[in-house]
From TrEMBL:
Protein name as catalogued: ATP-grasp fold RimK-type domain-containing protein
Taxonomic superkingdom: Bacteria
Length: 329
């Protein structure tokens, strides 16, 4: 079986720091030892040579928005009729770093107990009756996440507008303001007005922590993250610990990975009541590996859950997952 690993400028995301690539030499060696034929090349070569029948493709994603858009465009165009050749599925590739797509994919699809949420653009089409969690669609580390009620949403959107204005948008906005004063063309001004995409999630009250869980096929790594002082957010708090997870948490995590049909997944999980879980966010590619890198143990599903001393590195976990996932294909 041939697997093509497609990089962007020799980068495949990501290691502990987002700008650090996974070690592709280790990955190549590991997968070759499992009898895969491995070819590593840049996204530009994929454009040049196209997609071969009967081969598989594992393609990096990126957090730089321009790079991400470029990669998305290529991956969509080349694989829309060849989805089965992608290791990270087309929809999960698009869901990376896009909470809007995440919310739409699995709210109505296979149940992963995703917390109820809705995708908006700038204004709300209805009033909200209680506090919600506002999230910009591409935030990370708790940035862009805040609590809002009806009165605060407009302010929050405006703040996001200002933060994310680029020079071109600034120019357009000023031009339109001047035009509006000189000769009114409200319709055009409204057409070109800058807008902010975001999701509103049901707020789970009273949480003191969440779980960051990484599932590599049947291996589960669990990190507990306490919330920051005087805040409801756990991500980015730095108050992390490795706990003994319950079977229910492990089962929930493994089921989620199986439901979305991915070799691996990173999940943010809230315990809404004893042993009842909701997914706050998920990523099936280009996710932070802290939880795997710092763990001493993982939990593996055999007949029952077993606690196993970790002696595999991150790259080996990726390769193990791909091997098991492809075997089942
Ligand atoms: N719906 C929610 N209810 C309560 N707390 C939440 C909710 N969504 C997120 N949080 C808290 O906010 C943190 C950041 O949210 P998350 O969606 O994971 O964004 P990020 O991209 O910053 O990781 C989470 O770690 C969690 O502690
Ligand atoms: Mg998160």
């Amino acid at each position: 079986m041939k697997i093509n690993i497609v990089t962007y400028q020799n980068y495949f995301g990501h290691h502990l720091k987002v700008e650090e690539s996974l070690n592709l030499n280790v990955i190549k060696k590991e997968l070759e030892a499992k009898n895969f034929n491995i070819n590593i090349f840049d996204i530009n070569e994929l454009i040049k040579y196209g997609v071969n029948d009967n081969e598989f493709y594992w393609i990096t994603s990126h957090q730089n928005t321009a790079v991400k858009k470029y990669l998305n465009d290529i991956v969509f165009s080349l694989f829309v009729n060849r989805e089965e050749q992608l290791i990270t599925s087309l929809k999960l590739y698009f869901a990376h770093d896009n909470k809007g797509i995440q919310s739409l994919l699995f709210n109505n699809g296979k149940s992963i107990e995703l917390i109820k949420q809705k995708y908006y653009l700038s204004s709300l089409s209805e009033d909200i009756d209680r506090k919600k969690v506002f999230k910009t669609i591409d935030g990370a580390g708790g940035q862009g996440v805040s609590l809002v009620d009806n009165s605060k949403i407009k302010k929050r959107v405006n703040k996001e507008k200002i933060i994310s204005f680029n020079i071109y948008e600034c120019k357009t906005a000023i031009k339109e303001k001047i035009k509006k004063i000189v000769k009114r063309n409200d319709k055009y001004a409204s057409y070109v007005e800058k807008r902010v995409p975001y999701v509103l999630q049901d707020f789970i009250e009273g949480l003191d922590s969440d779980y960051k869980v990484l599932v590599f096929f049947k291996r589960v790594y669990v990190l507990k993250r306490n919330i920051r002082d005087n805040d409801f957010r756990a991500s980015g708090s730095g108050k992390f610990s490795y706990i003994e997870p319950t079977d229910e948490l492990l089962n929930y995590s493994l089921n989620l990975r199986e439901n979305i049909n991915s070799p691996f997944v990173s999940i943010d999980i809230a315990e809404v009541s004893k042993n009842k879980f909701k997914c706050i966010e998920y990523q099936a590619t280009h996710f932070g590996p802290y939880t795997q890198l710092n763990a001493k143990y993982f939990y593996e599903k055999k007949d029952k859950w077993e606690k196993v001393v970790k002696d595999n590195n991150l790259e080996q976990d990726y390769c193990y997952s791909i091997y098991e996932f492809m075997k089942a294909k």
